[in-house]
Amino acid sequence: MNKTIKILSACGTGVATSTVAAETCKKLLAERGFENVDVTECKSIEIVGKAEVINPDVIIHTAEIPLDQLKEYRAFRVLQFITGFGAEEVADEIAEYLKSKED
To answer: In the chain, what are the domains?
Structure first.
């Protein structure tokens, strides 16, 4: 797939876990054929404004986010990308969602 996938990654502080989640997500999506992935990281409190500016294909988050204000975006809670347990399954879900948007 050649289109650049835009992912917004949010955690409580916008530093540690969002970075780990973003890197893990990029690696696992590359293994599933998504080579061009652009990840923007932010704090969970910034996510609504960032989403409006970036218009991401997917939101990944490790902290609570205001899902009611992000209804037009598909969000995935990705604690598995931090722990490693279940990371492959979540990456499969994200990849399937992204593939469904291509059609």
So the answer is: 11-98 (3.40.50)
- Please give the model's pTM, rounded to 2 decimal places: 0.92
Q: How many CB atoms lie within 10 A of CB 54?
A: 17
Whether residue 18 has pLDDT greater than 90: no
Tell me which residue has tokens 């502080």: 13
Residues 6+ apart with CB under 8 A from 1: 33, 34, 35, 36, 98, 102
Which backbone phi and psi does 11 adopt, to 5 degrees? Answer: -140, 180
**Mean pLDDT, the chain, integer:** 93
Q: What is the total residue count of the chain?
A: 103
Q: How confident is the model at residue 14 (pLDDT cuts 50, 70, 90)?
A: low
Q: What region, left, alpha or beta, does residue 12 occupy, with left being phi > 0 and alpha being psi -120 to 50 degrees?
A: alpha
